[in-house]
Amino acid sequence: MKTRRRSSRRSKSSGLTTFLRAARFGALATIALGLASCAVAPSMTSSRYPAKSDARPHHGVAKAHRLPIHGVDISKWQGQVDWASLRQAGTQFAFIKATEGGDHIDSKFHENWQAAKRAGVPRGAYHFVYWCRPAHEQAAWFKRNVPNDPDALPPVLDVEWNGQSVNCPKKVPREQALAMINVMLREMEAHTGKRPIIYTDITFHQEILEGEFNDYPYWIRSTAAEPHERYNNRRWTFWQFTTTGRVPGVSGDVDRNTFYGTENQWRMFVQSACDPRDYRRLAVAGRCQALDTVQTASIDE
Fold first, then answer.
1. Residue in 160, 207, 210, 212 annotated catalytic
2. In angstroms, how far is CA 263 from the centroid of its own chain?
3. Distance CA 57, CA 122 (A)
4. Is the distance from CB of 60 to CB of 79 less than 8 angstroms?
5. Which of 156, 213, 256, 285 could form a disulfide with 245 if both were Cys (CB 3.0 to 4.6 A apart)?
6. d(Cα 220, Cα 201) in Å, to the nearest integer?
7. Tens digit of pLDDT for each residue in 103-150?
8. Residues 6+ positions from 209 with CB-CB distance below 8 Å
9. Which residues contact 174 (CB under 8 A, 6 or more apart)?
10. Which residues contact 86 (CB under 8 A, 6 or more apart)?
């Protein structure tokens, strides 16, 4: 902004001049505020949940804000969560960090697990894979620490590289990673009775998961573009579209997520623990919980 130099010449109309300058300044300030509000339009004006926002909105994920079913993922880093406020703001699901590797449990897991249920927020527990620990030990740790709650959402297996780990930053061969994932998926399903969800990011999917585990629901991360632009031939069930979300009940940033489908499809997912698009096929094999007749008839709505 350029700074205008003041004239040393006095004028009888100085009062009027001052008024006009003030009015002009006010008009410019109003325009500036209007432009600033446009910067957050992707996350606010088109959102189904105006109480929620994004500290750093990205136009590439604007479509996520128009989908009907929204949720969060929570760990100790969100601090004390007001679950009642979170639910009131329209949060319809939460994935809560439970375990990591074979010897770590999130210090807020049990508190969040119980508080979410009291508030009426459907929730599922997730395990973060540590590639330097045998898969059977990690599965046993998850089963030891995560209650088998019949009301819970399916468990989540979080598979990413541990690049920021001090003790385990390396990548393992693809065949080894796939074998470990297979063991943990099988054991988590045996423990909960529900087919696990696979969470992953762009890099890990490209290097390990393309074309694999297609019978499982995927929860993918894409914070700057729609999923089909980042994931080759991958159908998704959940989409993590920002890591800088703002939601009543949480102080500071929180990951925001959305479900792919309609409110009816969401109800079917919660009841059956299966993606509705797979229900008829997987239910025959006993991999889904039963839906009532009305829901089954409207499964594609």
1. 160
2. 17
3. 26
4. no
5. 256
6. 6
7. 999 999 999 999 999 999 999 999 999 999 999 999 999 999 999 999
8. 159, 198, 200, 234
9. 207, 208
10. 72, 94, 119, 121, 247, 248, 249, 250
Q: List Cβ neighbours of 296 (8 Å cut-off, separation of 6 or more).
A: 279
174-192 and 135-145 helices, crossing angle to 10° = 30
Q: Which two tokens stand for residue 83?
A: 């679950």
For residue 48 the two structure tokens come to 């189904």
Question: What is the phi-psi region of residue 252: left when phi exceeds 0, alpha when psi lies from -120 to 50, beta otherwise?
Answer: left
Spatial distance between the Cα atoms of 254 and 87, rounded to a whole number of angstroms? 14
How far apart are alpha carbons 62 and 222 in whole angstroms? 12
Rounded Cα distance, 93 and 247, in Å:
13
Q: How many residues does the chain have?
A: 301
pLDDT per position as a tens digit, 194-221: 999 999 999 999 999 999 999 999 999 9
Q: Quote the pTM value.
A: 0.85
Position 171: which residue type? Answer: K
DSSP string, 201-235: -HHHIIIIITT--TTS-EEEE-SSS-GGGTSTT--
Environment class of 210 (CB within 10 Å of its CB; exposed 0-12, middle 13-18, buried 19+)? exposed
d(C-alpha 192, C-alpha 70), whole Å = 24
Q: Is 226 a catalytic residue?
A: no
Provide DSSP, 176-208.
HHHHHHHHHHHHHHHHHSSPPEEEE-HHHIIII
**Strand, helix or coil for residue 218:** strand
